Amino acid sequence: MQIKLIAALVTSVLAISAQAADGFVVKDIRVEGLQRTEAGTVFSYLPVKVGETLDADKSAAAIKALFATGFFKDVRLEEQNGVLIVVVEERPAIAKIDIVGSKDLTADQIKDGLKQSGLAEGRIFDKAMLDRAAQEIKRLYFGRGKYAVEIDTTVTPMERNRVAVAFNIKEGDVAKIRQINIVGNNVFPEKKLQGLFQLSTPGWFSWYSKNDQYSKQKLAADIETLKSFYLNQGYLEFNVDSTQVSITPDKKDIYLTVNITEGEKYTVSDVKLAGEMMVPQAELQKLISVKAGDVFSREALTETSKKIGDRLGNDGYAFANVNAVPEVDKEKHTVAFTFFVDAGRRVYVNRININGNTRTRDEVVRREFRQMEGAWYAADKIQRSRERVERLGYFSDINVETPAVVGTTDQVDVNMSLTEKATGNIMVGAGFSSSEGLILSGSISQNNLFGSGNALAVKINSGGINKVYSVSYTNPYFTPDGLSMGYDLYRRDTDTTSLSSVSSYKNSTTGVGARLGIPLNEKDALSLGMSVEHAVLTVNSSSPIQYQNFVSEYGNANNTLLLNIGFARDSRDSLTYPTKGMLQRVYGEVAVPPGSLKYYKVNYQQQWFKPLSKTFTLMLNGEFGYGGGYGTNTDLPFFKNFYAGGVSSVRGYDTGTIGPKYWDTTSGQLIALGGNERVVGNAEILFPMPGLENDKSVRLSAFVDAGAVFGPGNQENVNGVGVNDGLYSKFSFQDIRFSTGMAVNWVSPVGPLKFSLGMPLNPQPSDKKQVFQFTMGQVF
């Protein structure tokens, strides 16, 4: 282009100079050769106007300006009787871009990348852009591990000074990481260090995770992980000397080599606090995770600085700065730290601004805030406010910022940006349960009715055993201080005649009730409720004799007044993907006069989550239930019995089959009765699905379950199997069943899905085993 420009300048200047060595006065200007470009565009770049004198300098400037537009590949200036003639030859326009042979990337994805190189349909064609475009396409494929990609370009002229550009792509195969070498390690085996890397050689889940494909970003993250590992093990002088990435000539195999220097292991000799602390030093001292004599750990150091900063933030010191300054003794391999604390100025919150809530009313969000306007800044209250807004379930994304107020030194604003999601739901679907069979369900619900935060739901669930029809309305802020009020109208039909392993009966219950939720503090809540139920029982000749006796004594229709009370303490960090915290619940119901039945049931559950690492979480769950009759009713009504076994209690055993049984002479089978005592325990190691580490909707687990159901009564032996005498079995540790296995929990778009493979550890001849169990679809 530079040679063409110089030639054009020389030619034009000589052409004009030959006729007017001292320049000439421009009487008119004419442009020739234009096809697409407007003449006004040319006039705007010319440094000379009609009536002015054009000399050699202005001629050179005009040609340079017109070439600089990029519209022309040739420009000449001529003079004829005082008329300046600008002769141009336009560059062709790109009429279309064809992508041929692309499979891994779509044509649109490639064209979007070409735009970054300046190549797009409708733009001016430049051959220099073609090479940049080909390199851009290669870059896109390199990002997908295809280093053997070949790009051939073809430019075809078209009418009206246009061209068609075609990119013929041979993608080639994906290059795989064949080996990762770590050189210089003496303390830790190479295999252990390789296990820290996200990048890996091909494995079982590489087809999904793509971790066997080289990525510069992933390698940088792995190097940082390696550094953190050594620094947390005391190797203060650890260093990554170099990294080499080599690829075989056929561009199919990649070899990574990381050269490291481990250095010596350091211990902490002393820890001190200094600076403006603004809170009692003894209180900050308790937050220090690093102690004299400990092995040096950067993680513990960072955690300590954060704890101290957070503690100061809770008292209004939003901009507190905590720095750990080391004093290294290389001879003794020890290090002492002084935490210098600069609390800064204490600040208070000026305004709380909420943005993005187009449907949800401001008051619905603001009533969840624990940080108040005009109060001292408190980091823990702001975090708690965010958690409470997130628990509403109305928003898909929540971002909180605390910028300083312009022109002040002691004020900040709290800006909460929200992204709303749909809270209404109209669903018609089907699911399947290993115990229920086909489940048809439908619901119309709105959890944020007219943006008020109130919830209304109409649900229908039709399973083979349980059918539920309900209408519910809940006002979470019935009073300004957070008391919730809800109302329910429901009908529940139970038909166990299709279950060969559970006692046969039918029960149809219609009820109406009201409930009240009373928050005691941020984690504790009390619930009260009252409902009136009308139940119709149906038994047959194959039903257990005690079922038939119950109907004979109390009739097949009963009215019950139920009082419900419950207490819950919930400190879990998430409702759907908990990794730490505890859930503790106790709840019960009691049937009181003037109802015809008098009984009580009490349930207790404690669930505990403890992170074992960044990916593994220990979950312990314990449940206990007890019930009975009082007054003239001596027993718990049979349709209120407890059951165990199945995907939600002790996996590996058929649903509801653990516990007391009786011998059904008609069918010649042992039939589960249930009982008035229930004990269930679960221990699980929860971890992400390989390849889906960042997906918070699906988790795997390895579990051990235990459980049993008991009741008053005596046992006898029938055909070599211990069964009861028509009542229940007595409590015995020998009757507790155990199982172990693997499970998958997935909060899918259609509802929660649970799958388990359970192996009973101590099954008895009377037990029914079911290794694979699952529930698909929402069961209300």
Automatic annotation (TrEMBL):
Listed InterPro entries: Bac_surfAg_D15, BamA/TamA_POTRA, D15-like, OM_assembly_BamA, POTRA
Please state where this protein is localized. Answer: Cell outer membrane; Membrane
Segment forming the signal sequence: 1-20
Cellular compartments per GO CC: cell outer membrane
**Which intervals hold domain POTRA?**
24-91, 92-172, 175-263, 266-344, 347-421
Where on the tree of life does the source sit, at the highest rank? Bacteria
For this UniProt record, give its keywords in alphabetical order, as a comma-separated list.
Answer: Cell outer membrane, Membrane, Repeat, Signal, Transmembrane, Transmembrane beta strand
- A Pfam match is POTRA
Please tell me whether the keyword Repeat is annotated for this protein: yes
Which GO biological process entries does UniProt record here?
Gram-negative-bacterium-type cell outer membrane assembly; protein insertion into membrane
HAMAP family tied to this protein: OM_assembly_BamA
Subunit info?
Part of the Bam complex.
Q: Which family does it belong to?
A: Belongs to the BamA family.
Q: What does this protein do?
A: Part of the outer membrane protein assembly complex, which is involved in assembly and insertion of beta-barrel proteins into the outer membrane.
Q: Which NCBIfam families match?
A: OM_YaeT (TIGR03303)
- Which PANTHER family did the record assign? OUTER MEMBRANE PROTEIN ASSEMBLY FACTOR BAMA (PTHR12815:SF23), SORTING AND ASSEMBLY MACHINERY SAMM50 PROTEIN FAMILY MEMBER (PTHR12815)
Report what the protein is called: Outer membrane protein assembly factor BamA
Q: Which organism is it from?
A: Sulfuriferula nivalis
Quote the gene name from the UniProt entry: bamA
